[in-house]
């Protein structure tokens, strides 16, 4: 079983969540079974050796980050590695209808959420042809730059364990 996690992150919170999910997955699947990459490093052709694809991003303006929201994040101190985000990567990747894809995001802790990166990514993946796309978890951050809300890392690891168990059944 192999898992690819493609995660976009600017303040490090979504990257931390991705790596923590990977740790939970690796507890059951083995350390070499899980790879975490940024969208600019992610393949455009997904090999048949990939059993599960996780796609994560921070929520910007109630959706996936875009070029303009990356500029705004950079002005607030974010580290922008390249101009390729989840949205652009989804537009370039060749869909595999048989591949299970689960989205996740980081979002500000709010009482009412109008939208999220995981919801937008899920819709874009379905539209692109990923028939087995699912909307996954949202992990909360205390502010734009973080940190993650207490216990979100342990929740991410537990979710990784749960995802691994679903692969093994």
Task: Write up what this structure looks like.
The chain is α/β, with parallel strands linked by helices. It has one domain (3-167): Flavodoxin domain (Rossmann fold, 3-Layer(aba) Sandwich), CATH 3.40.50.360. It is built from five helices and five strands. The protein has a five-stranded parallel sheet with strand order 2-1-3-4-5, sandwiched between helices. Helix 1 crosses helix 5 (152-167) and helix 3 runs parallel beside helix 4. The model has no long low-confidence stretch (mean pLDDT 93).
Mean pLDDT: 93
- CATH architecture field: 3-Layer(aba) Sandwich
How many E-type strands? 5
The strand line-up of the biggest sheet is: 2-1-3-4-5
CATH class category name = Alpha Beta
Shape: globular
Global structural class: alpha/beta
Number of domains: 1
What does the main sheet amount to?
5 strands, parallel
CATH fold call? Rossmann fold
Low-confidence stretches: none
C-alpha-based Rg, rounded: 15 Å
Q: DSSP strand (E) fraction?
A: 15-25%
The helicity comes to 25-40%
Helices and strands, in order, run as: EHEEHHEHEH
Distance N terminus to C terminus? 12 Å
The CATH homologous superfamily: Flavodoxin domain
Number of helices: 5
In short:
With 169 residues, this protein is of the alpha/beta class.
């Amino acid at each position: 079983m192999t898992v690819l996690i493609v995660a976009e992150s600017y303040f490090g919170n979504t990257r931390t969540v991705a790596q923590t999910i990977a740790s939970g997955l690796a507890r059951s699947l083995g350390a070499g079974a899980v790879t975490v990459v940024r969208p600019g490093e992610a393949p455009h052709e997904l090999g048949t050796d990939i059993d599960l694809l996780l796609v994560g991003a921070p929520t910007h303006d109630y959706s996936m980050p875009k070029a303009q929201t990356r500029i705004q994040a950079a002005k607030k101190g974010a580290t922008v590695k390249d101009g390729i985000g989840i949205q652009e990567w989804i537009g370039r990747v060749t869909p595999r209808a048989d591949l299970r894809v689960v989205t996740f995001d980081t979002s500000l802790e709010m009482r009412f959420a109008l939208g999220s990166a995981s919801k937008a990514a899920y819709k874009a993946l379905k539209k692109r042809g990923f028939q087995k796309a699912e909307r996954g978890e949202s992990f909360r951050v205390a502010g734009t730059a973080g940190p993650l809300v207490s216990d979100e890392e342990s929740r991410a690891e537990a979710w990784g364990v749960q995802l691994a168990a679903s692969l093994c059944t």
